[in-house]
Amino acid sequence: MKPEILVMAASPSMSVMAQLEQHFVCHHVWQVAPDGRAAFIAGVAPNVRGVATTGMAGIGAALAAQLPRLEIVAVNGIGVDAVDFAALRPRGIRVTNTPGVLTDDVADLAVALLLAAARRIPSLDRYVRAGQWQAGMPVKPARALRGKVAGIYGFGRIGQAVAARLAAFGLQLRYWQPNVKEGVTVPRAASLLDLARDSDYLVVCAPGGAATRATVDAAVLDALGPEGTLVNIARGSLVDEPALADALADGRLGAAALDVFADEPSVPAALTALPNVVLTPHVGSLTVETRHAMGQLVVDNLLAHFGGMPLLTPVA
Asked: What region holds the D-isomer specific 2-hydroxyacid dehydrogenase catalytic domain (predicted)?
């Protein structure tokens, strides 16, 4: 008999969705109106053995407690800060995520955001559309990338992929994270504050969670300075958003380029109103190829678990 699973969100890959239907009895929570989801889950909970979720949705203690037969939570994404491990560990519930397969696309977007902010592409697009070029309105020149310093906060797979791309633009590189990264040639700053102080661009690639919450605070933003640019493709929780909005509005920070926010999909009006901010809707991994690969890894982890095989990408 097929294992029963909760599917918290749809994959854009039709192949992934077809495989889930083929191998499991799927209870699609995402298809149910929000006000009916509690009753829907309660009706199927006794037999659910797996949950396919996303990095943003995760799984909380309340939902886990409703699922007495739960064995595995397969996260479609890298971040697991929304997973309540304290509720899962005592029950021996396994957790998997999808590292590696989204590294390149997220790194590509980080560089695209940095370039968009540095060369002011969104504002120049508005300038042309508004007829200001045709009217002879002056354009403020941007600054060149070459010779500048890019500091990378978090030097895992994605941080290193960002560094490799930025090196090709002639930027000098630094990184910071609490532990020293062995086997890399990029220098490590003494602290996040020192990294910001020494950087023209600060690219946030660190994991979310309590340990990193609001670590990019007013002091770090002030250290980055009026010519500095913050790029965040990690988690919105790492940045003190009110402090960021204030620094941008006051000119204490030059620009920001953000793909993630503290309370998605809500974006503070103080940020959307500013001309020196580039905003995208958490789309770092949103390509056809990567979303399929992520969904496939979710399927493969579920199949491995229920087939008695080792998990492909277990979270410790």
From this structure: 41-315
